[in-house]
């Protein structure tokens, strides 16, 4: 959570007149949708119109692309980003993955979802993103990551991404984070992979994931350091 608090602080400094609003995020419950509704997208260099907690697509692609290459070739692998916010993960996969991919970003904040759909349509003075493969697709929908029933059937995604969403929900108590994990595993295909990106130490996160992912294989990879901070990719994987 140290990096998330640091990012919130930097966003607060950059927001100028909105400093008080962003500052309330750092001290508030990060599971509260109203807080995220108030936070505008802060453009990240090289990722027009998006803003990333921790890091963006460029830093994660070395881990993501090999997993997508391993997907069954019958149809484009489906990727779900839970709590996508205005991150570059979804748009990066869509525009830079050389293989066909079907990406869905979901977020509890209608403001974030509207922002990303606007980018898809070429709004806010941005050029509409072009897919890295003609068969690739990208969608954004408002949804509660703790209850994905309205947007995702069981076993329907090859790859599920969580960049900071567990961290945010855990601030309100571990039961909410475990409910998120349960839903992510429900929508994951038997041979699929859930990746949680976080700066939380493995000594803390791994026992939680092992407890909540019985029957799945849990592992961790170190990422970075990016901006002087070491991050971790927690992988929860099934077997075909």
UniProtKB/TrEMBL annotation:
Domain Methyltransferase residues, every copy: 79-192
Keyword ATP-binding: no
Record keywords: Methyltransferase, Mitochondrion, S-adenosyl-L-methionine, Transferase, Transit peptide
Reactions catalysed according to its record: N(6)-methyl-L-lysyl-[citrate synthase] + S-adenosyl-L-methionine = N(6),N(6)-dimethyl-L-lysyl-[citrate synthase] + S-adenosyl-L-homocysteine + H(+); N(6),N(6)-dimethyl-L-lysyl-[citrate synthase] + S-adenosyl-L-methionine = N(6),N(6),N(6)-trimethyl-L-lysyl-[citrate synthase] + S-adenosyl-L-homocysteine + H(+); L-lysyl-[citrate synthase] + S-adenosyl-L-methionine = N(6)-methyl-L-lysyl-[citrate synthase] + S-adenosyl-L-homocysteine + H(+)
GO cellular component labels: mitochondrion
Chief subcellular location: mitochondrion
Compartments where located: Mitochondrion
Any one GO MF annotation of this record: S-adenosylmethionine-dependent methyltransferase activity
GO BP terms: methylation
Family per record: Belongs to the methyltransferase superfamily.
Function recorded in the entry: Protein-lysine methyltransferase that selectively trimethylates citrate synthase (CS) in mitochondria. Seems to conduct trimethylation in a highly distributive manner rather than in a processive manner, and thus introduces a single methyl group per binding event.
Name under which the protein is recorded: Citrate synthase-lysine N-methyltransferase CSKMT, mitochondrial
